[in-house]
Design brief:
227 residues; alpha+beta; Beta-Lactamase; five-stranded antiparallel sheet
Length: 227
Amino acid sequence: MAWWLVDDTDHQLVRDALHMERKRTAFLAEASSALLSTLNVGRCMDVTAQMAVECLADAALAISPTHGRRLSVVTCLRGGVPELSHHSVDPDDVPGLGEALRGFPPVPARWIDPTTAPQWLVPEGFGPVGSIVITPLPGHGVPAGALVLLRRAKTDSFSDEEEVFARLFAARAGAALSAARLYAEQSAITEVLMRELLPPTLRQVAGVDFAGRYRPSADHERIGGDF
């Protein structure tokens, strides 16, 4: 009788790694589709936080760029719904957050002491924080915000591969947020310009009623104040 033993540990590890990469690729494709399907800034923030807890963390916070010392924060727990809150705090009090909001490279998770997380950063009822990842949301030339990922103490800490994956997701979220903010700015400018082109309010004069209608001129007419 002869026995032939084969160690397939490496083969199994490769298969597991391939399965994980396929799963992450599918998640990134789904995230891109969900984020780019809306040009509303608030909705993009909600989707960013909600999708982050599906695959990356136990809780996620999507933070808008600062306006003075006031932060707009969308928080989402796994299995919960996104909630918007505002905090008058200094982001530099959190290691890596101030830099992320200014667009600097992320601080490795191992450099952040989870016990130093301020109260506003930890969702109510979350429990002890085991590890934190803070990564910027890169926009088109300017930072679009920051993404904070939290894991409970009983959950495994973030690995180097998971931190890289978080940055890939953050890049897609940042691009979507930047596009949404640009669209909002263009819409506001268009509204101001359109307001000047609309006909004035017509009133009754000497018993005569007037009516008006706005109709943009066509290209061939070469008249009007269109922009």
